[in-house]
Amino acid sequence: MSFNIRLVLLVFLGWASGPGIVQVLAQAPPADAEKSLQEGSAKLQDKLTAETERRKALSEKTGRRIDEQALADAAVFPKAVEWILRHKEFYKPNYVQQTQQALKFGTERVEQLAKDQTPWQNRVGSTVLGYVSKVDGSVQPYALTLPEGVDPKSGQRWPLYVKLHGRAGTMNEVNFITRYEAKDLPKGQSWIQLDVFGRTNNAYRYAGETDVFEAIADVRRRYRIDDRRITLWGFSMGGAGAWHL
């Protein structure tokens, strides 16, 4: 390496580590908001637990298979709320509203499950789904955007675009959910798109790497995917993750 190149690198690295870097710290929400969210979280978890037990009892009585995917789709919401409260990951004031929104989405899901309905599973546009990871048994979220015409019962196979997000220092599961849940289909999109959570910001290594493959596998179990048309891409950390994978 020449002296000039070394000098440029030293200047760049010195600038990058200097006082211009703004560190965003997580914090607890206001006490009244925290109490309200904790109460909402407990109620939602109780509802999901009751629905899970109802389905187990029904399965034992009738031999009907438990829809584990539908339960995971609902479980991502109370888990996200529990974690943001437990770790006090409220990076901005609007994270309180985002957590309230996650509770609302989760309550709607559980109420639909109680009616044996899963309308979100084939909804056009962006939807947050979930699966149980083999790494640690936790429920992990991912976002799926469906174009018009997707029908798991038809013979048509669809291309799958897998997108890896860049580093987002203030992203957690609640924030991820509110970014993607119930969003409209982008104009002109004719493919299924999977936006991976990747266990937040670990550069798609270790459990984050596994999350990519487990999310793809879950999508392939739900929908008819053309294995010859699966693409993997991302920006910044996501681009590096795509290169690594």
List strands and helices in order, with pairings.
Layout: H1 3-16, H2 31-62, H3 68-86, H4 95-114, E1 125-132, E2 139-146, E3 158-164, H5 173-180, E4 192-196, H6 207-222, E5 225-234, H7 237-244
Parallel strand pairs: 3-4, 3-5
Antiparallel strand pairs: 1-2, 2-4
Verbal overview:
The chain is globular and about 50 Å long. It has 245 residues and is an alpha/beta fold. The longest helix is centred in the N-terminal third of the chain and has 32 residues, at 31-62. Strand 1 and strand 2 form a beta hairpin. The protein folds into 2 domains: 25-116, no CATH class; 123-245, Rossmann fold (3-Layer(aba) Sandwich). A 5-stranded mixed beta sheet has the order 1-2-4-3-5. It contains 7 helices and 5 strands, in the order H-H-H-H-E-E-E-H-E-H-E-H. The two termini are 29 Å apart. Helix 2 runs antiparallel to helix 3, helix 2 (31-62) runs parallel beside helix 4 (95-114) and helix 3 (68-86) runs antiparallel to helix 4.
